[in-house]
Specification:
alpha+beta; Aminopeptidase; Nonspecific Lipid-transfer Protein, Chain A; seven-stranded mixed sheet; 10 helices; 19 strands
């Protein structure tokens, strides 16, 4: 008898699967109240689990469908993988591989062109065809030194929302942003209760402030303050820690930063996973007041349908290049593709560059360079001149960024 079998999760089994996930991530046991808040964001649909012979879940691979903005602005249907885990006493037995295969086969059968996830570890998901496609930086802004240039961020107003107002107003505000930046993830209705609402109505002290410009509300920030004072430094003040910040316009973004840097009794403002090209230092009279403390991979992408995904995005100006793609999990993707400014199609022409689907995924949204991947041995170069052409075609001027946790 097999140690496990993998199947779709049925209604009524979600809580046990979520508890397995949280246990694997070393979270505290979930109360009935916590489950009540999380349940709307944790439906049975999109979940595959491994069960033992007693129908107890020992592994979970969960996802929900959303949209991801690709270069050029098109929104592409994407399966957002929001939880993958194997119970600690059942690891190294093929459970993860079997669940991931079932999940990918389901996505392909449903015609979903992309999948995306946030990886708990950087060495797991490459073997399933995922590549790190967006990165984020952690910043620390020294509050006493951080003076803005005259006039920066003075257009518009900022006001606090109560938790109830935030739950009601922020989802519509988020939808206003349109998501032109590659990597932007739409937040379906089921996302909000378990992720945003639970955060801002909880007991962790998060505050929500909204910016309003000439056309109404156009940006928001969620943050908490962490007291840094102690006996040795009673004057130190608090750390203002940004959980998330989104703005529809550069002026709204600057206005939110002006507000954050004006809060009294704060010694520093920190933000994790901010866009790589966010120009905070340019706002300040002393750019050294901003320190980048970390750069980390953010959104990992998987091309479930390589042709559909490549066709959906736009490309820069360069002569076409022929890519030969290898996909061990979904062999229908194997083959050669000619990519150029006018589009993409399958071809029988000789390859210029050869690469695995996870490497292609890491370049898909415009981050990184074929040149660097070739140097790392992840792109086989057949025609040396094709490397520069591929970089000109794929790389985007604006850094891709997600900004949504799931």
């Amino acid at each position: 008898m097999s140690e496990f079998h993998v199947r779709a999760v049925a209604e009524g089994e979600q809580r046990a699967c979520l508890e397995l996930l949280q246990q694997s991530l070393h979270s505290r046991p979930m109360s009935d109240e916590a489950w009540e808040k999380m349940a709307p964001s944790w439906p049975a649909a999109g979940k595959f689990a491994a069960f033992d012979d007693h129908a107890t879940p020992v592994g979970i691979a969960s996802s929900f469908d959303t949209e991801l903005t690709v270069p050029g602005g098109r929104k592409l249907v994407t399966s957002a993988v929001d939880g993958v885990a194997v119970r600690a006493d059942r690891t190294r037995r093929g459970i993860l591989t079997t669940m991931m295969a079932a999940q990918l086969e389901d996505m392909a059968a449903r015609g979903v062109p992309l999948a995306a996830l946030h990886a708990s570890e950087g060495v797991i998901y490459g073997r399933f065809g995922y590549g790190a496609a967006t990165y984020g930086k952690s910043v620390l802004v020294e509050r006493p030194r951080a003076e803005l240039h005259d006039g920066v961020g003075r257009e518009g107003t900022v006001r606090f929302l109560t938790p109830a107002e935030a739950v009601e107003r922020v989802p519509a505000l988020y939808r206003r942003f349109a998501g032109e930046r590659p990597g932007f993830v739409a937040r379906p209705e089921m996302w909000w209760p378990g992720f945003f609402d639970r955060l801002v109505t909880g007991d962790m002290g998060y505050r929500v402030a909204v910016h309003s410009g000439p056309d109404g509300e156009d940006g928001f920030v969620v943050y908490q303050t962490i007291d840094l004072r102690d006996r040795q430094a009673p004057e130190r003040g608090a750390l203002l820690d940004i959980r998330e910040m989104h703005a529809a316009t550069p002026r709204a973004w600057a206005g939110l930063w002006r507000f954050l840097l004006s809060v009294d009794l704060v010694s520093a403002v920190a933000g994790r996973g901010r866009p790589m090209d966010e120009p905070i230092a340019e706002l300040l009279t002393d750019p050294r007041a901003v320190n980048t403390t970390e750069v980390i991979d953010d959104l990992w992408v998987r091309l479930v349908d390589v042709l559909a995904a490549l066709t959906a995005r736009t490309y820069g100006t360069a002569e076409p290049v022929v890519l030969e793609v290898l996909d061990r999990q979904l062999p229908d993707n194997n083959g050669r593709y000619v990519v150029g400014p006018k589009g993409v199609e399958r071809t029988t022409a000789d390859a210029d560059l050869r690469l695995a689907v996870d490497t292609l995924a890491s370049l898909y949204l415009g981050h990184g360079f074929f040149e660097h991947q070739a140097l790392a041995g992840r792109v086989e170069v057949v025609d040396a001149a094709a490397v520069a052409r591929a970089d000109a075609l794929f790389h985007t001027a604006r850094a891709p960024w997600c900004g949504t946790f799931f």
